[in-house]
């Protein structure tokens, strides 16, 4: 079998889908994108296609090494997202060629269902209570929300109290009938993370995500020593080589590699295995589309330490399209009492509505994340 063509579609809300065609009529789909830099990843995928056209798509490991090691400069969000989406599509082709879901190619399922969670509240974490009440109606009991708005490197007791009060309200309203993670979203400095973690401790969040920016990873062990709240990170780490420093340094209880940013299925199953060796849980990051989610689920079902799966239904970013709008077999993404069933179909398990993708790609927005500023006019972490 030979790869004949790569086609990219940028589609609302902020996703990009890749279709890889072969000379035997089998096509694979992937989702290579970095939110806010889709056009840059588009260019990277097009450059990498030089290594792919004419090659055997079933030799995923070799193609992965060629794409990664073939360039003198490697790693980082753009290149690893491009490789990720291509890798997803190659696994999709292989599964379809052999008539089995990808998890069968990775040794079969270690579990019968996979626990998921939903976002509540938006960029500025307001009315999370209503969001939780609505989602509980459809059997979802685990949530995630942003922990703060803009926060200064050193901020006020008032700002800390506002962040904590929101969380206290949730526990007051729901007790421990629900669970929730708090995403600091990299908005919190190391000194303020220590303050916030201490104040949040009594409310027992399931985890605190990105307690500091990934570039401040050396603080993870110190912050972990200062709190009993499990710390999570990973969406802004892009390969085993980024994660190995975090495993070695310690402090992170849950790693969250993004299947569309960290080199795809080939790389993320290896990151999951490294995590297991350090007794670290896996909770793949996925605020993106259905192909990325399907790739996550393929890894979840073969990873003993997979504990939670993010998905973007109702997320505040999905303006202009919802998670399953481009999926024909949405019934396969069965959620029962907050758990996904394994995807039954060959490959990644997603049947893409190509017509709808092509139509939507005509009006794809150039999504950018908001640029926030502090009251003094300086740039704030979003
Ligand atoms: O946990 C999450 O989903 C992420 O922090 C998410 O909010 C960001 O990755 C966002 O997609 C960046 O544009
Ligand atoms: Mg996050």
Offer a concise description of the structure:
It is built from twelve helices and 15 strands. The protein is an alpha/beta fold and 382 residues long. The strands form three sheets. Strands 4, 5, 6, 7, 8, 9, 10, 11, 12 and 13 form a ten-stranded mixed sheet that branches.
Explained architecture:
Helices cover 36% and strands 15% of the residues. It is α/β, with parallel strands linked by helices and 382 residues long. The protein folds into 2 domains: 3-101, Enolase-like, domain 1, CATH 3.30.390.10; 104-346, TIM Barrel, CATH 3.20.20. The strands form 3 sheets. Strands 4, 5, 6, 7, 8, 9, 10, 11, 12 and 13 form a 10-stranded mixed beta sheet that branches. Strand 9, helix 10 (264-277) and strand 10 form a beta-alpha-beta unit. The structure holds D-galactonic acid and magnesium ion. The site of magnesium ion has 5 residues, from loops.
Distance between the termini: 45 Å
Low-confidence regions: none
- The CATH superfamily label of the largest domain reads Enolase-like C-terminal domain
The average pLDDT score comes to: 97
What keyword list fits this structure?
single chain; 382 residues; binds D-galactonic acid; alpha/beta; 15 strands; 10-stranded mixed β-sheet; 2 domains; Enolase-like, domain 1; binds magnesium ion; TIM Barrel; 3-stranded antiparallel β-sheet; globular
């Amino acid at each position: 079998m030979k790869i004949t063509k790569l086609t990219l579609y940028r589609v609302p809300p902020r996703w990009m889908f890749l279709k890889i065609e072969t000379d035997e009529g089998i096509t694979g789909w992937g989702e290579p994108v970095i939110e806010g830099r889709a056009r840059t990843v588009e260019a990277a995928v097009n450059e990498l296609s030089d290594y792919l056209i004419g090659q055997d798509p079933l030799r995923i490991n070799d193609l992965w090494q060629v794409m990664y090691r073939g360039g003198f400069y490697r790693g980082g969000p753009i290149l690893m997202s491009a490789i990720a989406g291509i890798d997803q599509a190659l696994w999709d082709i292989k599964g379809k060629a052999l008539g089995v879901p990808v998890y069968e190619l990775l040794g079969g399922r270690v579990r019968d269902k996979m626990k998921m969670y939903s976002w509540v509240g938006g960029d500025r974490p307001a009315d999370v209570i209503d969001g939780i009440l609505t989602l509980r109606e459809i059997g979802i009991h685990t949530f995630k929300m942003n922990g703060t708005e803009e926060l200064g490197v050193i901020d006020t007791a008032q700002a800390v109290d506002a962040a904590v009060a929101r969380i206290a309200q949730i526990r007051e309203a729901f007790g421990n009938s629900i669970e929730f993670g708090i995403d600091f979203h990299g908005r919190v400095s190391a000194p303020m993370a220590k303050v916030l973690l201490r104040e949040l401790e009594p409310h027992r969040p399931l985890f605190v995500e990105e307690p500091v920016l990934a570039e401040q990873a050396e603080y993870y062990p110190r912050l972990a020593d200062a709190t009993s709240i499990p710390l999570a990170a990973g969406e802004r780490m892009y390969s085993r080589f980024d994660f190995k420093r975090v495993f070695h340094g310690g402090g992170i209880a849950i790693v969250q590699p993004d299947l569309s940013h960290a080199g795809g299925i080939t790389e993320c199953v290896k990151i999951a295995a490294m995590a297991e060796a350090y007794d670290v849980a896996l909770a793949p990051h996925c605020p993106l589309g259905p192909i990325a989610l399907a790739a996550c689920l393929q890894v979840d079902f073969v990873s003993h330490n997979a504990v939670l799966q993010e998905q973007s239904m109702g997320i505040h970013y999905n303006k202009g399209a919802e998670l399953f709008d481009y999926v024909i077999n949405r019934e396969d993404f069965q959620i029962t009492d907050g758990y996904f069933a394994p995807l039954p179909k060959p490959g990644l398990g997603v049947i893409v509505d190509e017509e709808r993708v092509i139509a939507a790609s005509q009006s794809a927005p150039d999504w950018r994340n908001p640029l926030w500023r502090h009251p003094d006019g300086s740039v704030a972490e979003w």
